[in-house]
Model the fold of this input.
Amino acid sequence: MKARLVGRDFLTLMDFSREEIEYFLETSSELKRAHSMRVPHEYL
Done:
C-alpha cells in the first residue's frame, strides 16, 4: 500500500487508519535496515 500522506500532519494516531500506521512501521523498518547496512536511499 502506498499511503497518501502529502500535506497531512502526524498529531495523533487517531488521524490515521490502521493500514497507514502499518505503512509507517514497515517503512521505518526498511529505512533502519538500509541505514545499518549503509545503503543510500532517497529519504531524509
Remarks:
- Residues 10 and 41 are 23 Å apart (CA to CA).
- The longest helix spans residues 18-36.
